[in-house]
## 1
Amino acid sequence: MLKKAVVCILLAAAAAVAWHQLDDVPVPVENGTRLTWGNDLIWGVFPVYAGGNGTTYVLPCNPFAGEDSMWDDSTIAPMSGGRLLYTGLTFQWKEQPVLWGIGFHEGDDTSRLYRYCLDSAWNQWRQDTIGAFALGEGASIAYDPNRAYHAMNYVVPGWVYCLPGGNSTAFWRYAVPGGTYVEDLDPYGYYPFPGAIIADQTPLFKWGSTATPTYRLLVSSRSDFSDTVIDEQCSNPEHEPTSELSNGTYYWRTAAWVSSAWSWSDTRTFDLQGGWQSLAAIPHEAEYGAIIAYDSGSFSQYSRSILAFVGGSSGRLFYRYDISQNTWIQLDSSPDGFHTGRGTSLTTRTPVGDTSPCIYAIFGDEAANDNPWRYLPDNNQNERWQVYDNDDTSDSLRYYSHLPRTIWDHSSMVLGWNTMYLIPAKDDDPYLYELIITGGGGEGGEAGVSQFGGANAYVIAGYDGIEVEYQLPVSANVRATLHDTVGRQVGFLDVGKQQPGTHRLSWDRDNEGRRLSAGTYFVLLDRSGAKARLKAVVR
């Protein structure tokens, strides 16, 4: 039986809700720094001048590791091209984990799109020159997953949206090529699959092998093959074109050389919807300080949106792009006195995978002694931007949510599991900070409550253990892990399937059977994919 202090976590001391300084960034923090979230990690892009061509680092950070070992500067190679300008970073989580980045290379005056797959043997960045448009100051990207993705029929895991910036109103979308696991998804013996929609403009054509040593591939934009775009003989039953195909409908068939004649297969067809597509222009030019973020569910249950600040001299303007309608809608401007200058961040909970959406921002222009802000679409007009202060009734809690440092040009913030992560300052203070989000998020919620897939989860810290109380709106499989401050897993509980209602679990000993010592711990609670991270202190 636990001897409980019976206080919700974060209420034990007011400082527990303050910004907490974590590990320092192992590379200089300069203009172009951007953070994103993916695979339960923080990812940062850091363009560094350092004389000559400089370097553009991309580093993962494990916020659950020890505070002196969070950043990993050895796993991922820097982006090629030296120090890039107008950088952006986003994370693809549908089909496979992929980092997507953009940057402008001064050496050859080119804008580039980068990708790094974490689940393959690439072990390097792949890059393509962007010929459709040029990146400028205020460039930003965001990933939108394809809800209709299918590994055989709709092989497009999503899209990367890009606001190029540079005083332009242009807005673009790049279709993410899928089909990485073609060899595992080939029930027909060929690829592309019949009637499939794909985005890969140099697809790997595959078909069934025979005893013949010679094959032939025909690809055409016409069903009668009168306009052939590929006519290739090969010794293996596969072929990847060296030049990109244009978007459109294609027909293809293959043949094997048998008895001194070609033996043809049936005709198959696929639709190619790849590369960059120009979308509706944003109503105002995007300048320095512009930023975009993907959101799902904030404006209606099934809404999919790209949110955008345009920055610059009109830096209070805030827009929503309705993906289904290809239309921009002007929302409430940023709060009076706050402009989206350099260092502005816009982040949502959608990329984290939580079922309860929310939208947060910090504003640039060297904003000091301010809080993060939250956008509440259901509030009355001109009241939708609310300061995030943990509890509207407490001036002291509002103080503890104040940003820990002045927001400089190269500041960046991202939302993780119930936690904001922020790099606010430049090289004289290149630290990562965290602020654990309480349940209300600026709406008067109780400290110590974490959203858990639409329900609440509480932590009660005791003198000799930790107890978690959580609510299940539907039946779910529940697992929980307990970590110490250096990231080691010291406790694990696989509860199994539980019925709807209120449940509790607790620890008073670690995995080795030792009593929990006094100190700080983190609980990671997983309810069929909906996750919560809670902080507890054993006294």
## 2
Amino acid sequence: MNKNIMGYFKSIQTFIRSFFYKQQKQTKQNKCTLQQEKYLKIGANICNIGFKSKHAYEDWQEDIFNHISVGDLVYCTMPVTDKALKAIPEGHTTRPFLIVKKGRDELFGYACATHPKPLRSYEKHIFTNEVYDSQNALYKDSVVQFDCAYVIPIAYIQYIYKELDEYCVRQIARELKAYANIRRKAILNFDMEIPIHKGDIFKINKSYYYFNEKKDHKYEMYKCINGGELIDSKYFRFKNIPRSLDFSNTYTFEDIDINTLIEVSCTCRNDWVNKQLNKPKPKEKKKQYERKLTPGTIIFEEPWIIYLFDCDNISYGIDYNKFKNHICELIEFKLNMDKATHIVFTEQQCASIYKALIEQNDIHSDYLKKRLNSIENTLLLPYELEYPVGTILESRFDEIKYVYLYTYNKKKFGLKINSKNHKNKVVPIHAKELDVVDQLRFECMKEELKIVQKNALDFVRNILRDIDQNLINHDLEHSISFSQKYPVGTVLSCTYNESEEYMYLYTISDTHYAIYLEDACEGVYIVEPIIIYDYKQNGELVDEDTKEILTGILETTQRLNTYNCTKALLEQL
């Protein structure tokens, strides 16, 4: 019974003691929480929250404390527990601290180290060659480490090492702000306005921007883009992604939130940007214009196209159907030479198209203006005629025959006869000694010129125009005298091969012309010169057969001499 009563009282005693202990512990936790809240408002990166010195400070330390200003570098003993202090290597227990805030009886700041832990570029500020190492006889950098701030009691102060100038303090404040923005938490920082400098990097709407300058109260920026040359990306590397700047567009902002600053400017980056901005702009590649066809040529595409010009290997023209409705719109198309026709607009029609396109301020306006001026200012190209157009010239040296077209800069130009490589292609006539052997009929010559003008362009086109306007020679101006050794229709047999028979036609300047009868019977009427002494008379054709052959020659021949002589012979019958 007594044992039960005693056990009951002991359990009550234990309960009371445990309750009192919990209350006492809770009170201590509440006090600590209030202290933490106080420090968290100062900076979330304070790493010795709740640290209190067990040592009383001396009068000299209080005197130094009173002379300390925000922005000073002050040598202090590391504000950590005695146990933690013993673990720090000798010579490193006392170090400079950058004072960022000053309380009533304590300082707040960041520790400096000559052997810092690995930190990213935005997690530190470097004082270059700040500390002399007598043992190794060299200067070392002193690094302010932003990742951990300290509360420094007066008892841990040693002496004021250095006062930083205002510019340096503001630069560190900017770096601390960028670090806070990246970490997305409030950290210990100077109580001052954070200025914005050229070269600062901001993150706006998930994109990075380089601040270049402020104009008319607006912030002009360039956008950072992923990629770029390796040599350039070292200046713009966020989240380990190489980047560069897009100088092609300038972005303007009315205002900038300092909370979007993620990296402060640096001299090497600004120098690189200035170098890029001051680079001489590459010269625009000059457009290469050419005319593969005569402007105004109709192309049988679907729909029909009026060809105008080529630029950088792209053909341009206008829709023929739209043009009929007085609509001129320049279009690109792939030129198929096989679909080019002989239908060609006049220069005046092309000029009206050029004017319409120029009024639309087309990108090719400069070229179109030149073409328009060429048409308006040049009535005739400076070509000359040494022979009538279509004169057949034969080189005395190699007997190559040419169809003469025009002379330009004292050089003759024409077409090679019976040359596959130069068919419909105007070539210079280099032969010095030439004989006139015949001339093409103008009607035939005009058809030939219409084909040739695709490549010969303005010269041939102007010759055609002048022919139509009777400004240069015509068939009627040409006359030829011929004689006859035998009556027309005389059959001549070859002395060496009697089956080879010709029908004699006429003689011009001791050259005798005839037609091969076997070809004539098959409807091929080719008049050619023959050596009369190699042939003998072998009868005459009846008039009806002679007339049929002469009519065939007249209808098919392109040569003017042959045409005129044949016509005269036909009239005699």
## 3
Amino acid sequence: MKKNSLLLLFLTSTILIKAQNSGLVTDNNNQPIEGVNVLLVDQNLLLETNSEGIFFIDEDIEDNSNIQFFKFGHTTQVLKYNSSEKMKVVLKKLHVELDEVGIVEIHNNLGNNKLTNIEKISLNNNFLKNNSLIEGVDKIIGVDMISSGLGIQKVVVRGLSGMRIVTYLNGMQINNQQWANDHGIGFTDLGIGDVELIKGSSALKYGSEAIGGLLYFKDNPFINSHKPKVYLTTKFDNSSFLNRSQFGVKMNKNGIYFNFDVENTISSDYRLPDGTYFYNSRFKQNAIKISLGDRNNIIRFQIHNEITGIPGHVCEGDPAKENLNSLISNDIDWTNAYIERRPTQYISNRLLTYKTSYFKNNMKFDLFFGHFINKLKELEKVTVPAFDLELENNLISPNIKYEYNDFTFNLGVQANQIKNKNLINSRLVPDANSLNIGTYFIIDYLKSNFGINTGLRYDNKELELVDETQDFENIDYKKTFNSTSYSAGLYYKLLEHHFRVSYSGAYRAPHFSELFSNGVHHGTNRFEIGDAELGIEYANQLDFKYQWSNEHFGIVINPFSQYI
């Protein structure tokens, strides 16, 4: 019986090795590590090691696919899959974690973090740790937020915000009237696994207009288990009597992967540090998210709705003469604590994306399509909206990535069309269209302890006013903006000392809100006047980073200089 068992084990192992559908993860003492996350990056598929440190792949994956191995408290490794070799990975035990601020070996959608200043943090436990998505993001050094309670929050990167910070969700640029401080980010942490951040103007692949920084949010990957994985989480927070609930299902059936997530959130007015309540900072949110894919194709659909109060609002008169005590209350009236009050924002976002990938030896081809619609209505009085906007954003982006020895080449194009339309005659910003086409080429060289990064991007943006109402019918505006963006960086490692320096430059064309705004924006208590003569805004940044660490202690120094 014992011989038969050994023979069966040998035959099974031989089959696994031949098929190259298994691997082993150990520590530096050759002990197996259980619960290591094994992420097939290019397939967006998450595996996990068992009690013997072994992980299994049900089907062959393409050679040169990236595989990331991660477990908290251990080093992270990214390896290239080779079907002719048996995979054995060693993760060293750590006593200090510097993943949020250090140079670690980890895969990033935004590029190589050894050569570019990319920060990455996990948002898997953000629901439990924080009351909003932005509260989790501002844990990154150099990131802050503008907030009017939990319902309206915006990211600030090194002092810059608004149109200078570009946000992506699963490859799609999110445009949700972010020119105003009373317009939030437009989605929650539902189903999101992590966020990457480039500080400054180095995001050539995802747009030149991110002169202050670029945020890239990415959903949790699919799972390889044939058993459905279900979660239900709910929380209550007494600072604003917030109730949040999320539910999700992940499953795999015959190589077809499916993720489903849904959320409902309700909150009363936000409690200030002195115990008073910020009147009308209450909000409601609900969202649904569906992802469906196989090894080379992913389609995602998302709906996000908000009803958000606008606090600190003055409908008439001079805001400077307003008694601030009228904007706060000493207690909560439970009979109407969650009932909407004027002024109010009604937000509805729809996002549909599709991505397909093709592998051939050392080449990877990606093609991305994205469609995003943002509807924003602000009601100042009972039934009459101050403005009612619909913004449509369409994005097409092909990319070719080729690896040769120690070089990586990225060549791609982005075509981004934006249409802004008013649904009523009253308007703060006009009907306008823009079409931005950008081409980029990026080269990375990384060998042992030395690396070089350089890239160029050329953009051509056409912006046209198409509003025929009385306020804009006599304005003939159609203008083209074009410029070149660039980035270059050096990386060097000497023993445990990491050095990186980068220099980048980018531009931002004016937004139609900056060109043509003309009216009272009650949400920010100001009268906004645009300037049709505005030109290109240029930005240059010099960034240096030094890191040293051992098993118990670490130092990071990151000075920068930015000129706009």
## 4
Amino acid sequence: MTFILITGSIMAISIFLIYRLCRFFNIEMKWTSLVLCAVMAFIVNGMAITMSPFLDRGHYLRLGILVITAAAVVTIFNERMLRREEALAGNCTVLPTEQLPVEEEPPAEDILPAAMQEPVAEISPSEPVVPEGTAQAEQPAAVQEIPPEEKSAAPQKNNEAEKAVEEAKLAAQAIAEKEAKLAAEKAEKEAQAIAEAKARKEAKERAEQKKREAAARKKAEAEAKAKAAAEAKIRAEAEEKARQELAAKRQAHEQELKQELASMDSLDAILDFAYEAKDAQPKDAIFAYHEAISRYGDDDYTPFLVIELGNLYKEQANYSGAIAAYKQALTMPIIAKNDAMCQEFTKNIHYLGTVQDILAKHAALSTPFPQIPGDIMQEIETEFQAHSGSAK
């Protein structure tokens, strides 16, 4: 819209300057020619816009041809209008219904006496009346009939001029509508381009924001993981240190316990010690049973010591220790030569293995044997019976 207003203003000023220059140089310029000049200016401007968007040599050449053509059209049209006006002015006559202006009568002394003595001719109704004192020779020039051809040609020429002006107006309106449409399309494209650029910018900003958030989250996770690993390491080191300290204490305690058990000179004294320590210090009782089995491995009561040791391990949920005790006992001569005792110990080893498997399946491996729930015990018995039947 701004472009159209600026262009129209420049054209109006240019046409006014053309009019003033024509007046200054005494060049006759019809107003219809000025209108045609404005129309041609709009046409040239519109064609210059649509010809090419680049100001190259071909563009300027085409623009010059258009300007020269438009100037020639306006000049020819103006010349034609002037000639037609001159023709109409030269052939203009007074119609029978019109009356010519009365000319001034010459002085009385200039009138010839002979003219005054001529009789007045009778005027027929069809002849025009000539004022008195006008020469007879001037009468044909004063009143003339307009030829029918010229009468019909003058309205036709006026119609052609009006038609040309109307066509020029329609052409100017079409050019204005086309320019308005082009301006609207250009504005719409610019708005669409701005919207797309804004959308791309927002999408880019969102992507960068997500990237920053992901990086921050990854960094936080890495820091949390590193912190957890450091805490786990500290805990592991503390636990390992505590375990080493406990193992050292236990080792020192077992050395003292071994010296105390070494001072006992009979199996009964060791068993009495183990029985007293079973509830308060089960580990001391287990150590005492191991010491008794080691020192009195040939005694007939040794198999029962192994069973007691296995029961102590089961009460402490140390099923691996019980299995190891039974397996070690099978290597002892007093048990190896007793088939019934070997079968019993082997059966105990299989049963404890079944207990380990079922408790591990239920994530209850740390459950002491006396505290195993009834449904799990039923499952253990069923599994053990099935295993024993398949073994047979």
